[in-house]
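Hey Z.,

So I finally got round to the phosphoenolpyruvate thing we talked about over coffee. Here's the setup:
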Amino acid sequence: MEKYAGKGVYGAVAIGRISLFRKADLSVERVHREDTDSEKKRVEDAKAQAGEQIQELYEKALKEVGEANAQIFEIHMMMLDDEDYNESIEHIIDTQKVNAEYAVAVTADNFAEMFASMEDAYMQARSADVKDISNRIIANLMGKKEQKNQFADKMIICADDLAPSETVSLDKDKVLAFVTAYGSSNSHTAILARNMNIPAVIGVGDGFLSEIADGQNAVVDGFTGEIYVDPDAETLQKYSQKQKEDEERKKLLQNLKGKENVTLDGTKINIYANIGGVENIGAVLANDAGGIGLFRSEFLYLQNSDFPTEEQQFFAYKKVLESMSGKKVIVRTLDIGADKQADYFGLKKEENPALGMRAIRICLTRPDIFKTQLRALYRASAFGELGIMFPMITSVNEVEEILEICEEVRNELTNEGIEFSEHVELGIMIETPAAAIISDRLAPLVDFFSVGTNDLTQYTLACDRQNPDIENFVDTHHEAILRLIEMAVENAHKNGAWIGICGELAADTALTETFLRMGIDELSVSPAFVLKVRDTVRKIRLK
Ligand code: PEP
Ligand code: MG
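And the result:
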């Protein structure tokens, strides 16, 4: 038995077998080849194989996600036959006398860069397609099997790190737990694990992956961050017992369903849930959340290989609103950038992505993308109680510009005779110190604030939320953060706005009383934490 330790990010115990999540190594070397004809023939064969694979994917996508989403594979198919692309590969092989892999990789880089530098958003998005199709050809040339991320059984997924897009693409029904060598507890991968109620341990360190193998038995303790590989009988017995007790405790909380979120002396608060997509609605309803306080809409974008259309988004938002039957649903407009990257946005590599082109900055720079999302949201508003909020706000100007764009969208819909609700609440996230400090100026412009403590902590304490090495410097209860929240609460209420917290701190029950005393109106937490926070609220006496 080997013991490892990392940081537990979702408290639950998993017992099962390990599956290593491998990313194919497609690094290409430049090799001299005299026989250029045979290299060109290899490219042809690899392309033919790619054609068959894409056809298969197209048919699967058509069945599972519909024609609009399947179209991406038609585009890939067309690219395989693109004359310029193919001429470039042949030209490099002929003139440089090099291996096929190298010629494809260089062509891919050149074409991807060319697309990324185009003005038109649609053409920019083709950059990711060229990379995708080229990687497929290179993998075929190298004889590497496609990473399908499909496991026969529910497994404990072990990886060096998982990007949010990789996490969302995993088949959730086959994941027992996540264990990663790197990563930090406020990263989106950790948040996703929490949203999916999956035990997760991160930051186990370098050696871990080289010492374990597919199929080994393991125990993952998401409470303490401990992992036991090849556990002995005694350990297995101890953790089966712990798993049972945890499940019983969670069952006890079920008795709180249908009860109010009210303190012993009568103060009430809303407890809502955070979601990443339509698939989390079941957990929201099962845990009796009063609404959805944060729908991270960017996951719709991360699950796609191209910009989701207005229609696709409309159906997703409508479905969430309808499933919540009149309860409030607050959708945050896309918060792409920093650790949440979608290649088709064609964003430049940045030195400091957390301080770079992300979230509202992308939306205000590329209003076509923003307006498509707003149109879909307003159209969906006719089907429930919608609120829209905007991330990464730092200034009054940004909010004024956003409100103008919202008005434009409403006018367009009115002129087109399309129905929407007149009562959509508009709010902003308070997740930069700047927003908290000028909250007196921002509050009169909006209906509500929602405090994003994950980013507020990162920017206030100057601690990169992605960097596990500095976790010891992250004091989530730091006075500076609490003072900024308090300032925002006072300014919201003075100006007739309500205020909630939707960052991970909202679920920290050591602070529930502090938040209630501040006058916070709503706490929005991962669905699995709703009843735990309700339980805490019901035991508090404020007066
Ligand atoms: C936050 O920053 O606290 C937040 C809720 O947004 P995200 O974690 O998605 O950045
Ligand atoms: Mg944030």
